[in-house]
Design brief:
Elements: E1 5-9, E2 12-13, H1 20-38, E3 43-50, H2 54-62, H3 67-84, E4 91-94, H4 98-113, E5 117-127, E6 132-134, E7 152-162, H5 168-177, E8 182-183, H6 185-197, E9 203-204, E10 206-208, E11 217-218, E12 221-226, H7 228-233, H8 235-242, H9 246-250, E13 271-275, H10 279-293, E14 301-304, E15 307-309, E16 312-313, H11 324-331, H12 333-343, E17 350-352, H13 354-384, H14 396-411, H15 415-436, H16 438-441, H17 448-469, H18 474-483
Bound molecules: 5'-O-[(L-methionyl)-sulphamoyl]adenosine.
Length: 519
Amino acid sequence: MSKRFYITTAIDYVNGQPHLGHAYEKIIADVISRARRSLGQEVFFLTGLDEHGQKVQQAALAEKKNPQEYCDALAVDWQNFAKKLELTNDDFVRTTQPRHKEFVQATLSKLNDAGQFYKASYTGYYSAKEETFLTEKDRLPDGKFDASYGEVVELKEDNYYFKLGAHQQWLIDYIEANPDFISPSYRRNEVLGFLKNNTLEDLCISRPLARLNWGIPLPFDKEFVTYVWFDALVNYTSVAAAHGDEIILSANKNLQPSTSNLQPSLWPADIHVIGKDIVKFHAVYWPIMLKAMGLPLPKQILVHGFWQKDGARISKSTGNVVDPIAIINEWGVDAFRFYVLRELDIGPDGNWTEAGFRSRYQAELGNGLGNLVNRSLSMLKRYRNGIVPAKSNELAADAAKAADETRALFQQSQLQSALQSIWCLVNRANKYVDETAPFKLAKDPAQAQRLDEVLYNLAESCRVLAVLLNPFLPGTSAKIYSQLGLTGSPDKLADATWGGLQPGQSIGEPAPLFPRKDV
Ligand code: MSP
């Protein structure tokens, strides 16, 4: 059975409202999903929420709510947020769902039966804020722990550990043999450097009930709940199992084999999109967990950078935040989607400024794309009564170049570069208007045929742009199609081939795509 292109995002802690960083990651995954669908692939896009663990328990406690009720209330906001961003996710996982909890327990049982865990007592310095024990290596030169760990206390406790050390060399070899496994390459080099210079300590996969009860109980010892990261990472497989994925179901005899599986399989994931702060979990722990589970590894871990605002860390406590919902309400979702992907390539860190956002809105969306479409279609309406003239190929090569580059860049998830290629066509077509001056041609009856050529090239460029832009700006791209009088949907990259617009066809009503906002 064929396999779907399976892409995931990190699942967000549901301990507050979504911010710019969360939005950015989800938009990356959505654009890749839409791009792959446009390329003709079947896609399964998963996002969702990480609801267990200390962070969420503490947040619930602070509001005097029971954690489940707290999560249920916030999950509504987060799901609405996914809609607001116009994500085309195929499922939305919440780690408190029974389908996930049961799968985590089945996985734990399997690994425990296979002798992957052992119980041991440990005394160490514990950061509740980061939910982690710290070692001597974590101390600053002055002997203290970094303030980011919050209060650090000495703690002795029994726990279950997952044996990692035995897999260290295997993982190094795997990463070296698979250069695309961790992208960009500097993140891959960091992981390799870490693995080569440190001995992996075993991973503590439990938390004693006495310290934390908001988690999935260990199936083999009711005195413990599952460590939140073990629980969270497993979402990528629990949801695939819920959709009947054969590879996952047959790897675990504790799971019910599916009886009615008619869907193409999912596992292994093609891309896990994550931020740079959680690389170790995805590129070290997760591969080893999968190996122990008898499952193949994801094809790629795609790591994006962090957004700052006005050069400082985004932080609720200092009020230095960007509220994506407010931006979208004011400027439209497409402007927001465009800005984050055009401004920041997948990898480095970025900086949000109001001025930067406005400037790209005005220059690239308003004066660039919006103006091109509006003047092209308005002139076609005015000079030719909205009837598409005979075909002409003057901009065909420019359009083909943009389409070819976009196709190749989509296959490599190079979204910022794809936008740059697409804007080469926007700029070329705008320059073409200036060069050919159709408003002058229209005054001279002897130039009627030349005007026809120019108007066809412009309208057809707009159509091609709608197709290329569809993954990024779905609403805008649909508007361009309808202003062109086209009924279909611009969602197949194959339709970017020059000459799709048929002579004799009537266009619709031109209307500004990105209204000016300079008052
Ligand atoms: N719950 C874990 C992930 C579990 S995945 C199995 C988590 N949650 S989080 O809410 O803290 O972060 C979710 C995602 O948002 C992460 O990929 C993180 O890197 C990303 N971002 C959080 N703040 C960010 C910025 N300021 N900028 C860009 N992305 C950021 O970690």
